[in-house]
Amino acid sequence: MMAMDQGFVKGLKSYIREKTPFAESMYKAWKGGQILRRIRARYGEDTHVFLMRGATGDTYLQLALIENYIRERHIASYKIIADSARCRELGSLFQEKDLIAMNGYKVESIEKAYMLMGSRKLNLTILFPWTYTLYFNRCRLRMTERFHFMDTYQYYVLNLKEGMRIRRPRFRELPQERLVELGTKGLRKGKTVIIAPEANSVTQLESALWNKIIEGLAQKGYTAIVNVEQNEGLSAPDYFCAYAESVPLLEYAGYFIGLRSGFCDIVSSAKCRKVVIYPAKTARTDYSEHRTEIEFCGLKRMHLVEEDDDTLTEIDTPLVRNITDARQELSGEERAGMTVDGLLRRFRAGTGHELDNDRMLLSD
């Protein structure tokens, strides 16, 4: 019987490769159902399954809020299926032991089963309903002025009550060998700026601008370390920080500058001076699927940082754009602000002049 089943599946796969996408979708739906059945055979029939996908910021919020959903719905047993090593690394920050990593094909198969049979029948919650493999639930309403990114998960995805609790991750202390390693790159306690120049959600600033910022910091007695996997043209040493050590590193260094990315969510609780750079609003921004401006993704707007916390400075600039608007033409007024000096003026205005070395300054 087993040999016949294996032969049938092999033949079905061969058929799918040569036939229509509909046949492939039906096979994936069957496959997704099988995966869920195997999970419940191992962990119990009443096990609720969460499907976790998305970029770093999405995954961070899913993990930060999921306890509220579990508590409000009295879920006794659950497992989280995640589609990347990044999800597992973030899960460890939240001491999440009920996380199972799977490849993208298996996760997409579960999504197809969800589309065919629905959430209730499968006892399944989709935590990232606007992935491109799902052909519905693309709600433009969540991107309008009334809401922000945290609202997207609180109301749109999880339907949580007011007064929800945001779970915070736990970080490990920087080991001595890490401090020694970073010391060779110029790390000095309270006098180093960690720069995060990369983001998936917005366009990148040119290396020339970052290098001008790095040069300005050096003239004022600060060292800079860039948080990148591969340093391409930046005039500061690089070190790609593990999530678990990110907040301790920033607090030791004293300062942080970064493009708005999921990494900013992770380090939002760091007790250091932080400058986060957002895209400026444009007249024709496409909000159908993506938005990263301060009004939607601001760390204070999302309640990840208290409104009166003066350690965080949030600025926007036309030099940075939503990734979905990368090819959009700017108006003359918007283009006028797209200069290096224009951004540096925003730094000066945002960081102030009165705090001297207690705050990262790029002022004259």
How are the SSEs placed, and which strands pair?
Layout: H1 2-18, H2 21-43, E1 48-52, H3 56-72, E2 78-82, H4 85-93, E3 99-101, H5 104-117, H6 119-122, E4 124-126, H7 149-157, H8 176-183, E5 192-196, H9 207-219, E6 223-226, H10 243-253, E7 254-259, H11 262-266, E8 273-279, H12 294-297, E9 312-317, H13 332-336, H14 340-351
Parallel strand pairs: 1-2, 1-4, 2-3, 5-6, 5-7, 7-8, 8-9
Helix pairs in contact: 1-2, 2-5, 3-4
What does this structure look like?
The chain is α/β, with parallel strands linked by helices. The chain has helices at 2-18, 21-43, 56-72, 85-93, 104-117, 119-122, 149-157, 176-183, 207-219, 243-253, 262-266, 294-297, 332-336, 340-351; strands at residues 48-52, 78-82, 99-101, 124-126, 192-196, 223-226, 254-259, 273-279, 312-317. Helix 1 (2-18) packs antiparallel against helix 2 (21-43) and helix 3 packs across helix 4 (85-93). Residues 351-361 have low confidence and may be disordered.
Q: Could you give the order of the helices and strands?
A: HHEHEHEHHEHHEHEHEHEHEHH
Radius of gyration: 23 Å
Structural class category: alpha/beta
What would you call the shape?
globular
How big a fraction of the residues is strand? Answer: 5-15%
Estimated helix fraction: 40-55%
**First-residue to last-residue Cα separation:** 79 Å
DSSP strand tally: 9
Largest sheet, in brief, is:
5 strands, parallel
Number of helices: 14
Largest sheet strand order:
6-5-7-8-9
Mean pLDDT: 84
Low-confidence stretches: 351-361
